[in-house]
Amino acid sequence: MSRTPVVGGNWKLNTNRQQARALLTALRASLDGLGGVELVVCPPAPWLGDASDLLDGSSLSVGAQNVHAEPAGAFTGEQSAAILAGTVSHVIVGHSERRHVFGESDETVAAKLRSVLDAGLRPLLAVGELQEEREAGWTAAVLRRQLTSAFEALDGLPEGFVVAYEPVWAIGTGLTATPEIAQEACAQVRSMIEERFDATTAEATRIQYGGSVTPGSVVQLAAQPDIDGALVGGASLDADSFTAICSAVAEAAAR
Ligand code: PGA
Q1: Could you give the C-alpha distances from 115 to 118, 165, 174, 241, in angstroms and in order?
Q2: What are the two backbone dihedrals, phi and then psi, of residue 162, each rounded to the nearest 5 degrees?
Q3: Which of 51, 116, 124, 41 has the alpha carbon at shortest distance from 84?
Q4: How far apart are CA 231 and CA 92, in angstroms?
Q5: DSSP strands (E only) in the chain
Q6: Ligand 1 in contact with 127 (CB < 6 A)?
Q7: Does any ligand 1 atom lie closer than 6 A to the CB of residue 109?
Q8: Is the CB of 210 under 6 A from ligand 1?
Q9: What secondary structure does DSSP assign to 200-229, as a single string?
């Protein structure tokens, strides 16, 4: 098994321009050239151009946190995959805050995923259950529903496709899922991808864990066989923490 893990830093609605530039510069200094792991930094949309310039020629990629499904048109305030394509290589699609704070349906997420793939960009497709869904024993059913919808119109997944399993109850709460819980859900996601496509696709898909990942918690998470990296929110805003997380993931992959 030789999947390259992926660590994403989702800055969400944080940083002013000066802070963003300083963080990007610090991340380049500490992480450029780190082997065995793919790194994607996702600042707020207005700083994507700065990110692309400041990380140009480095091993760090730039991702957007969101996208509009339509390629162009009268959609004030939105960015399409075609617009993002000149600046970023990756796009987070279906983050739980998009689904649950902004009311994005499974169908909207599927349309966004298609638009990202059509534009030749690389999605990080986020899925995950709410606390009440986990307590009701519905985790697998929720993951299946989200994946089935997202993949509905797709004939296959591009090589190295990334899914981020992010239990909603663990995001921004400090409640990291235990390595066992995270591993179980990531293995379920992989087997659902095998059912929907084939074993080769499932084996090649990178499945990140996300939800209150810290330099401390990532070590055991990254050691799980079906966890291929992390999607990091809060801890990605601190250069030292994000660097420690990325280094730990690279180390786990080298074992
Ligand atoms: P968190 O966010 O690390 O702050 O919990 C994770 C995410 O939303 O991707």
Answers
A1: 5, 21, 33, 33
A2: -120, 125
A3: 116
A4: 10
A5: 6-10, 38-42, 60-64, 90-93, 122-127, 162-165, 206-210, 229-232
A6: no
A7: no
A8: yes
A9: HHHHH-EEEEESS--TTTHHHHHTSTT--E
Total Cβ atoms within 10 A of residue 55 = 20
How many C-beta atoms lie closer than 10 Å to residue 221's C-beta? 27
Which of these is catalytic: 68, 95, 97, 129? 95
Record the pTM: 0.97
Can you tell me the distance from the alpha carbon of 206 to that of 228, in angstroms, rounded to the nearest whole number? 5
Q: Give yes or no for residue 14 CB within 6 A of ligand 1.
A: no
Reference 124, options 60, 39, 56, 201; nearest CA is: 39
Rounded distance from Cα 74 to ligand 1 centre (Å): 31
- Biggest CA-to-CA distance, the chain: 50
Which residue has a Cα nearest atom 8 of ligand 1? 233
- 175 Cα to the center of ligand 1, angstroms: 11
* End-to-end CA separation in angstroms for the chain: 12
Please give the chain's pLDDT, 255 residues, in tens: 589 999 999 999 999 999 999 999 999 999 999 999 999 999 999 999 999 999 999 999 999 999 999 999 999 999 999 999 999 999 999 999 999 999 999 999 999 999 999 999 999 999 999 999 999 999 999 999 999 999 999 999 999 999 999 999 999 898 889 999 999 999 999 999 999 999 999 999 999 999 999 999 999 999 999 999 999 999 999 999 999 999 999 999 998
Which residue, chain included where needed, has tokens 């986990």?
Answer: 134
Do 37 and 246 contact (CB within 8 A), yes or no?
A: yes
